[in-house]
Write a structure and sequence with these properties.
Largest sheet: 11 strands, mixed
Oligomer: single chain
Order of helices and strands: EEEEHHEHEEEEEEEEEHEEEE
Mean pLDDT: 88
Distance between the termini: 7 Å
Helix content: 10-25%
């Protein structure tokens, strides 16, 4: 696995191909949109999916906690798919989360899906978390200054490869703001050229597409209309190249 460095507000951040951010100077790991217990939430509305999304998501998170050994973990909102998601956690998964809150300082940034703190899990709940030049919040504020780290939109991008179009979650940044990809096993995505994302990056930026072991970076702009994954939208993208990385 190789992570790609990104500099915002004079700070060096590491983007992990599994979709998390690590800030070495603060020993801080940020992860967004876990949407735990989405499977059981959908089941209550008659949409039946295998109920293992929380287990898979926490497996991946546990691996990253071992990889980066952070002191602080920021869960950047929509950690649970609905307001009573934490109450539906299987006992084994609830215990795993409690263990994480004991070995790391776990900060739950509240989101639109989970506007109240999870019950009986531990950690601390905030509406946003500011440290140094960075502010971590769930939804971006258009007029925010440099150093905003956000989630919410589940950004994804589509590129053309030899075998055809490939669509993957991605980070998006313009050097001032960073938008995180969704981490949860059952989370979908919104294309980076969608107006909801474009308005937050009016001058374009770079997408960092998640790969198996590395990120692929390419410029995004909002110019002439192009065809992306069979849908006509606005924007253009240069051919992707592996992001500058270090192990």
């Amino acid at each position: 696995m190789t992570a790609a460095p990104l500099h915002i507000a004079g700070e060096r951040l590491m983007l992990d191909p599994m979709g998390v951010l690590f800030w070495p100077a603060m020993r801080l790991l940020a992860v967004s949109d876990l949407h735990l217990e989405k499977g059981t939430s959908l089941a209550r509305h008659g949409v039946l999916l295998p109920p293992w999304d929380t287990h898979v998501t926490l497996d991946r998170l546990a691996l990253l906690l071992r990889r980066w050994s952070p002191e602080t973990v920021i869960a950047l909102g929509d950690s649970f798919h609905d307001s009573d998601g934490s109450a539906r956690l299987p006992d084994t998964e609830a215990q795993r989360l409690r263990s994480m809150t004991k070995t790391h300082r776990l900060v739950w940034v509240l989101g639109n899906h989970d506007p109240a703190p999870p019950a009986g899990i531990g950690g601390e709940a905030v509406t946003e978390y500011a440290v140094g030049p960075m502010t971590f919040r769930h939804q971006a504020i258009v007029a925010a200054g440099v150093g905003e780290i956000v989630g919410h939109h589940h950004p994804k991008a589509t590129i053309q490869a030899r075998a055809g179009a490939i669509s993957r979650p991605c980070f998006v940044s313009d050097g001032r703001r960073l938008m995180m990809p969704a981490f949860g096993a059952y989370t979908g995505g919104l294309d980076v050229h969608d107006p909801a994302i474009r308005r937050l990056f009016p001058r374009g930026g770079r997408a960092f597409l998640l790969g198996k072991d590395r990120l692929f970076s390419f410029q995004i702009s909002h110019g002439a209309a192009v065809r992306v994954a069979g849908v006509t939208g606005t924007g253009s993208a240069a051919p992707p190249t592996p992001a500058r990385q270090r192990g």
